[in-house]
C-alpha cells in the first residue's frame, strides 16, 4: 500500500492542483464582459512578476474586473468549497456516518445564526471584521454539541437520530435567523438569499476575514486525520489502539465548527457540498483521511467555483444563490444514497 | 521476572452495582489464561478495566511492571492489545490499512507508516493467515476472515499481553479452532501472554494452560484445566450437570453436558 498511496499522492495532487488553477482562470474569464484566459494570464504575469511596460488602452478596466470583481469571488468560492468539503469529511468521520454533513446535521445553521447575530448587533461590539466568522464559529460549535448530544444513544450516533436531530435543530435555528432578519427590516428576498447561500458582491476583505479560521480548521483536521481513521472502528476500539478519543473528538468538533462557521459567515448556508464531495472522493481514493481530506478540499474548491460560475451566468444578468445549484446537485445525490445504502444505515 | 499482568484487590462496577469484587490475578510471560463463566459474571468488565476503558473503584492493575492508571493511552496500547467480539466499520478500509492502524501507538502525530511498520503488518498478517486478504475491503470479508484481520491488528501493536473477548462467538467451528490454534501458537512461540474470555468450556480446556471459572464477579476456581474442569465445579458455577471425561490420546479433559440429569 505504501507504493499505491505514494502513487496516488504523486498523480492525484498535481492533477487536482492543475485542474484547480484551470478552473480559476476559466471562471475568471466568464461573465458579462468576456475576458480571454490569455489576458488573465498576461495580467497575472504583469502583477506577479512586476512587469510595468506599456499599457494597452482598456486594460485598466479589464484589470479591475479581473482583480477586484471576479478573482476575489472565485478565490472565496474556492475557500468556501474547500472548507465545506473538509468539514463534511470530518463530520462523516466523526459521526461514523456517510450521510452526515454540516448542513444535514444542522451545524451550518448554528454558524448562520451566529453570523446573523453578529451582522445585526455586532457593530457595537468591536473585534473588527473577525467578529462575524468568530460568532459563526461559536454558533456552529454550539449547534454541533447540541446535535451530537441529542443524537447519541448509548455511545453511538445512529443515522436516524442524527438526521432527525439535525433537521430539528436546523429548522429551529433557521426560523430564528429568518425572524431576526425580518424584525430588523431586511426584505424577504435578502433573507432568502442568505439562507440559500450566495457569493454575490464579495471582495478581498471577505477572503482576508475567513482565511485564518480556514487555515486553523484545516490544520487541526489534518493533525487528527490518523485519529479519524482509527475512530471509524468505534470509540472503545480507538481508545484501545492508543487514541485519546475524548480529546480527538473535541479537536475535530472545533475544526468542523471553524470551517463551517467560516464558510457560512461569508456565503450563507450552502448545502450538500460537504455531503457529495467526501463521498465521491472516498469512492475513488479510499477512506484514508490523510489523503481524503486534502483531496476533498481540492475537489470541493473546484466544485464550488464551478457551481458559483453557473449561478452568476446561467440567468445573467440575474443571479441565482449558489446554494440552489448545490442543492440541485446534492439533494438527488442524497436520495440516491438513501436508496442504495439504506440497508447498511440502520 | 516481572509479571505481565498483576491485579491486586480489584473492585469494579457501574454506579452502585458491583461487578467484580476483590479479584487477584497474576499472569506471566507466555501464559495462556482462559476465563469462562455464566453471562453477567463480569468477564467483559474485567477486560475493559485492564484496557483502561473502565476505571476501577479500588485496586491496582499493573501491566509489565507499570500501573495502568499512570500510563498514557499510547504506552498502554504498546503493552496491551484487545480483540473485541465483533467489529464494524462505517467506511471500507482495506485489510492492510486496518492492520496498519494497529501501529498507531508506535507512531507520532505527523509520522507516516514506514518500512518497519509495513514489515510488522506483513509478519502478523502472515501469522494470522490473512496476508492474502490485504487488499480486500474489510466490510466484504466473512466473519472469520474479518476476525483474523482484527487479531492481526492487535498483534501489530506488538503487545506483551493480548486480551480477547469471546473472539470466536460468531464463527463456525472450523474458524473457531483456527483462531484458537493461532492464539496457542502465539503464546508458545512469541511469549505473548494471552487472556481470553471464551464461551466454550471444551475449547477453553483444550487450548488454555490456565483456566479461570468466574461467577458473580468472583473467581470460583483457577488452575490447570484438568484440575478446574470437574463435575462439581461445573455444577457450582453454571448450575448444570455434566460428565467430565479424559480424552485417551490427548489426555485433555472434555465435558459432556447432561441437561436433564437432575430430573
Largest sheet of chain B: 6 strands, mixed
Order of helices and strands of chain B: EEEHEEHEHHHEHEHEEHHEE
Helix residue percentage of chain A: over 70%
What would you say the CATH architecture of chain A is? Orthogonal Bundle
Intertermini distance of chain B = 51 Å
CATH class term of chain A: Mainly Alpha
Largest interface, Cβ cutoff 8 Å:
A-B, 27 and 40 residues
Overall morphology of chain A: globular
How far is it from the N-terminal to the C-terminal residue of chain A, by CA? 32 Å
Low-pLDDT runs of chain A = none
Number of extended strands of chain B: 12
Assign an overall shape of chain B: globular
Structure classification of chain B: alpha/beta
- The number of E-state strands of chain A comes to 0
Strand content of chain A: under 5%
- Could you tell me the mean pLDDT of chain A? 85
User: What is the SS-derived class of chain A?
Assistant: mainly alpha
Total domains of chain A, how many? 1
Describe this protein's structure.
The complex is a heterodimer of chains A (346) and B (263). Chain A has 346 residues and is mostly helical. Chain A has helices at residues 2-29, 37-49, 59-94, 107-121, 131-151, 159-183, 188-196, 204-223, 225-231, 235-240, 245-267, 273-285, 289-313, 322-345. With 263 residues, chain B is an alpha/beta fold. Chain B has a single domain (5-257), classed as P-loop containing nucleotide triphosphate hydrolases (Rossmann fold). Chain B has nine helices and twelve strands. Chain B is globular, with a radius of gyration of 19 Å. The A-B interface holds A 1-2, 92-93, 96-98, 223, 226, 229-230, 232-234, 236-237, 239-244, 282, 286-288, 290 and B 48, 51-53, 73-74, 76-78, 80-82, 84, 87-94, 96-98, 100-102, 104-105, 107, 109-110, 112-113, 115, 118, 134-135, 153, 157.
